[in-house]
Write a structure and sequence with these properties.
single chain; 315 residues; mainly beta; 15-stranded antiparallel beta sheet; 1 helix; 15 strands
């Protein structure tokens, strides 16, 4: 709320403007391009990829610039998020904007009575300009790929209750950290697990109440250092157009000299005007538990509007 000379506090801002273009190219490929203007500063390629639509053996290939399927949150765009800010572990372990880079993904959908998908990925992660905080990936040359694998499952337990979960793994080279030359080029290993349980009546007769609980845990081995973090959140739809959310983030489980103990408590209240517009009030309190930075508080009032037709979001 107070801010500082480098990060102003209260005021108006545009968190992100996103432009999406999607089309079926032919019976074999689909193309998707998402461009963003974050904080009204420059035009960035959020994602730009082609995806196969007709491969045999339940295989699918994606190529271009895209967000990795690692974990639950990394693959989501901002307007799909249940909270105004992403969980702490995304920036801490996957990069400031998550794990997103030019790469190739091969997916296999298992021929089972429930959803089970295996993704294998390889990325050329760009080296960050500043090394003022530990960075998991982006070291070495562009041919020193970052590899990732994800196993995702989904099963409806009843008409109203369903469960989704996944296991994720990634490895690559770290670019190091200013003042820590021994870390540059070291092999990094990142492991993750996520679980989501959702209760939602299948029709309006069951009422508008819905509840979703999501949790995710990551652990990283960087050189000889081991650290980790998690978040757990509950989002409750209390009426047709109102939802409440609470999330707790904790980094430093276990803690290390690269990742001290840090936590954040966030509360969210959303008014859902329609499928295309919502107004959200969000407040957070971040605790550094004796770290180098002071505790901080932030509050946001956010309006999100979507123009035009768009495809269904992932479960």
């Amino acid at each position: 709320l107070k801010g500082d000379p480098a990060h102003p506090g209260a005021g108006f801002t545009v968190q992100e403007a996103e432009f999406g273009f999607s089309a079926v190219v032919d019976p074999y490929f689909r193309g998707d391009v998402f461009l963003t203007i974050p904080n009204l500063s420059g035009l960035e390629v959020e994602e730009a990829m082609v995806t196969t639509t007709g491969l045999p053996w339940d295989l699918q290939v994606k190529a271009g610039v895209f967000r990795s399927a690692f974990g639950r949150q990394n693959g989501q765009h901002l307007h799909v998020q249940d909270f105004t800010r992403r969980p702490l572990l995304n920036a801490a372990y996957l990069g400031t904007d998550g794990l997103k880079a030019p790469g190739l993904q091969v997916s296999w959908l298992a021929p089972l009575p429930f959803f089970l998908q295996l993704d294998l990925e390889a990325f050329s992660v760009e080296r960050p300009e500043a090394l003022d905080q530990p960075t998991t990936f982006g070291g070495g040359a562009r041919t020193d790929f970052t590899y990732a694998a994800e196993l995702k499952a989904f099963a409806p337990l009843t008409e109203a209750l369903s469960v989704s979960g996944g296991l994720s793994f990634a490895t690559g080279l770290t670019p190091g950290l200013t003042g820590r030359p021994e870390l540059e080029g070291a092999r990094s290993w990142l492991y993750g697990g996520d679980l989501m349980v959702k209760y939602k009546p299948p029709n309006q007769e069951g009422g508008y109440f819905a509840l979703t609980w999501t949790t995710e845990y990551l652990v990283r081995k960087l050189g000889r250092t081991l650290d980790g973090g998690l978040y757990s959140q509950v989002v409750v739809q209390v009426a047709r157009r109102w939802s409440l959310g609470v999330r707790e983030d904790v980094l430093g489980l276990p803690a290390s000299d690269l990742q001290p103990l840090t936590s954040r408590t966030a509360l969210s209240v959303s008014f859902i005007a329609s499928e295309f517009a919502r107004l959200r009030a969000y407040v957070e309190r971040e605790f550094t538990h004796g770290g180098p930075l002071p505790d901080s508080t932030g509050a946001y009032l956010v309006l999100e509007v979507s123009l035009g037709a768009h495809g269904a979001h992932a479960f």
